[in-house]
């Protein structure tokens, strides 16, 4: 799936709150940059940390705090 579709899915998981999604992606990207292992099978040398974080959120590996399921 293209990254644009993954980003749309991640935004949906954040209840369409771009601020929460941005904060979650930033936090996870910093963790990945500090040496954390990705939760998805993506090569860190070929993909940006933010892209990996978006895919992790879109696929449900990470939960965003402050988002309630409706």
Structural class: mainly alpha
Count of discrete domains: 1
Low-pLDDT residue intervals, each spanning 5 or more residues: none
Task: Report the radius of gyration as a whole number of Å.
Answer: 11 Å
Largest β-sheet summary: none
Look at the structure and give the mean pLDDT. Answer: 92
- Overall, the morphology is globular
The percent range for helix content is 40-55%
Please indicate the percent range of residues in DSSP E strands (runs of 2 or more). Answer: under 5%
Distance between the termini: 26 Å
Total number of beta strands: 0
Order of helices and strands: HHH
Number of helices: 3
What are the main properties of this structure?
70 residues; mainly alpha
Concise description?
It contains 3 helices and no strands. It is an all-alpha fold and 70 residues long.
Question: Could you please describe the fold and organization of this structure?
Answer:
With 70 residues, this protein is mainly α. It has one domain. It is 53% helix and 0% strand. It has 3 helices and no strands. It has helices at 3-13, 18-33, 49-58. Helix 2 (18-33) packs across helix 3 (49-58). The longest helix has 16 residues, at 18-33. It is globular, with a radius of gyration of 11 Å. The N and C termini lie far apart (26 Å). The relative contact order is 0.24. The model has no long low-confidence stretch (mean pLDDT 92).
């Amino acid at each position: 799936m293209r990254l644009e579709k993954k980003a749309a899915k991640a935004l949906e998981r954040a209840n369409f709150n771009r601020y929460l999604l941005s904060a979650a992606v930033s936090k996870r990207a910093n963790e990945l940059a500090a040496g954390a292992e990705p939760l998805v099978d993506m090569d860190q040398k070929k993909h940006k940390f933010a892209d990996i974080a978006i895919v992790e959120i879109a696929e449900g590996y990470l939960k965003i705090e402050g988002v309630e399921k409706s």
